[in-house]
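Consider the tokenized backbone below.
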């Protein structure tokens, strides 16, 4: 074999030489990958620490000095990253609103620096947080005070849990820097109806003082013969018979669609005035449980008979009724209120659980208009008591009326042009609606009325009218539990939609404990009422309810990272 051929065929030396040349760049690439991978992980940790520290800094009072903020930044970052090779730059702080910029670096020596030529990699992180200017809010707490709120949940009643949550909410609003001192809260306890202060509003111009509304005499017929000019005249006679029978402050619902809209009564529309709720004396012998009334061999049963007007009784100024006097005629007689006969005030009707009398269905404390009087707000919360059926629609509407700039109170500021305006001077309007149940209009199939007296009257009133003018066209002629609930649900849904259209932000909470759950339709109603899916809460325990209020208050006054 020639020398040339031996050289060509001998490859061992070539491979060794080639490997020697390639091994250096391969080591350099591997080392660089290790160094940069470590640096990337370090940078991720540094950014998380910087973000968390920035939020902490912005949670300090606005009076915190710049040196104190820098000290807090250094201490917090060292706790998160360690002291070695950590550099925290001086904070950059601006005012109105306060914005804090935090920049930090971590000096990191590389493992393969001599090989790669890069002796250090210095990952950095930057975070800005902004403490918003304190914003002004108008917040309506619409709180269920129905009888079911007396049920137990977690060692306390459901209402006690609500009282704790609402009190905590008031305390938070007036101690958090996110809320201006001009922020106001209203509270609307609701059950079958909503009450206003009867002393304050007895002569309010927006209430039908003179019996002009077409709804005023639906259950008191021919008032002229008794010289009554309004329901207030009847209340005066009843209060003379029993001191507890003065008007309690509840009002009937307006006709549709006024009862799902924002506005004040106008002189040109008499039915736009609010009619005071007066539960009529139902025919019977003023029984504490239920009263039987027989006419033409048919016996009917009344659950709110508080004046003795049974057949055969000469009721003061009223002529004696005959055995053929119809139920409606007996119910609608105005004369029996002139000198109430055998009036039977009771603290509690043992059948309905609601006190008998002209304020049947008016069971809650009067609402509190917008105020920043924390003592008054918390006093009302502590005085709330569970009693009555559920009328979410009326509760929601009175909550809206407390925020309105043009309804009966006209307390609210002008509506914002956008729901999420970033303008710090914009007053944000919020309704927080909490209920543990579903709309419920109690029925009475043993009476021509067909139902218990409610904010919308009876299924059939003494004068033969129905609630149809107060209900949507698709929910007419209610006659039972299902149809009446559907009608109230429809009113509630429309009210929610209309309130959102004027940029009121709505939060809803369903308090649905396992022993007394809210059904799927009720949950859907609340979910759809809320302004967004994350503003609806379902609480299955008292702790859940309190937690829901905490989440709401935190989201309203939340801090933010700007980048």
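A designed sequence for it:
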């Amino acid at each position: 074999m020639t020398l040339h051929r031996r050289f060509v065929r001998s490859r061992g030396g070539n491979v060794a030489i080639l490997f020697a040349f390639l091994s250096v760049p391969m080591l350099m690439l591997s080392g660089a990958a290790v160094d940069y991978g470590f640096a990337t992980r370090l940078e991720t940790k540094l950014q998380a620490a910087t973000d968390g520290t920035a939020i902490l800094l912005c949670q300090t009072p606005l009076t915190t000095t710049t040196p104190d903020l820098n000290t807090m930044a250094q201490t917090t970052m060292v706790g998160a990253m360690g002291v070695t090779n950590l550099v925290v730059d001086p904070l950059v702080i601006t005012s109105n609103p306060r914005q804090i910029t935090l920049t930090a670096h971590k000096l990191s020596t590389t493992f393969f620096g001599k090989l790669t030529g890069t002796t250090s990699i210095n990952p950095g992180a930057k975070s800005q947080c902004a403490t918003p200017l304190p914003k002004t809010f108008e917040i309506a707490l619409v709180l269920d005070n129905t009888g079911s709120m007396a049920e137990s949940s977690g060692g306390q009643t459901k209402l006690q849990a609500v009282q704790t949550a609402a009190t905590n909410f008031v305390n938070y609003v007036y101690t958090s820097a996110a809320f201006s001192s001009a922020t106001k809260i209203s509270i609307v306890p609701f059950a079958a109806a909503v009450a206003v202060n009867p002393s304050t509003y007895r002569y309010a111009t927006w209430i039908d003082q003179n019996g002009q509304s077409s709804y005023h005499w639906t259950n008191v017929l021919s008032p002229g013969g008794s010289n009554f000019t309004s329901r207030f005249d009847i209340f005066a006679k009843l209060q003379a018979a029993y001191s507890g029978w003065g008007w309690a402050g509840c009002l009937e619902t307006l006709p549709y669609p006024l009862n799902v809209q924002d506005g004040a009564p106008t002189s040109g529309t008499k039915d736009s005035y609010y009619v005071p709720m007066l539960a009529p004396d139902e025919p019977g012998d003023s029984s504490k449980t239920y009263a039987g009334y027989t006419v033409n061999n048919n016996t009917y049963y009344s659950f709110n008979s508080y004046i003795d007007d049974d057949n055969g009784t000469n009721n003061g100024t009223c002529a004696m009724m005959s055995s053929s006097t119809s139920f409606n005629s007996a119910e609608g007689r105005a004369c029996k209120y002139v000198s109430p006969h055998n009036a039977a005030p009771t603290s509690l009707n043992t059948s309905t659980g609601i006190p008998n009398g002209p304020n049947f269905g008016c069971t809650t404390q009067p609402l509190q208009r917008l105020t920043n009087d924390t003592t008054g707000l918390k006093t009302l919360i502590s005085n709330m008591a569970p009693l009555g059926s559920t009328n979410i629609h009326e509760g929601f509407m009175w909550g809206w009326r407390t925020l309105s700039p043009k309804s009966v109170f006209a307390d609210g500021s002008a509506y914002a042009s956008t729901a999420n305006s970033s303008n710090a001077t914009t007053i944000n309007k919020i309704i927080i609606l909490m209920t543990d149940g579903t709309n419920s209009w109690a029925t009475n199939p043993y009476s021509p009325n067909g139902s218990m007296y409610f904010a919308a009257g009876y299924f059939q009133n003494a004068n033969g009218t129905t609630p149809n003018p107060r209900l949507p066209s698709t929910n007419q002629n209610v006659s039972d539990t299902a149809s009446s609930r559907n009608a109230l649900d429809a009113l509630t849904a429309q009210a929610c939609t209309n309130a959102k259209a004027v940029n009121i932000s709505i939060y809803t909470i369903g308090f649905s404990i396992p022993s007394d759950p809210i059904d799927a339709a009720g949950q859907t109603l609340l979910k759809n009422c809320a302004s967004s899916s994350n503003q609806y809460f379902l609480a299955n325990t008292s702790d859940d309810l309190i937690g829901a209020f905490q989440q709401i208050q935190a989201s309203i006054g939340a801090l933010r990272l700007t980048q």
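The mean pLDDT is 87.
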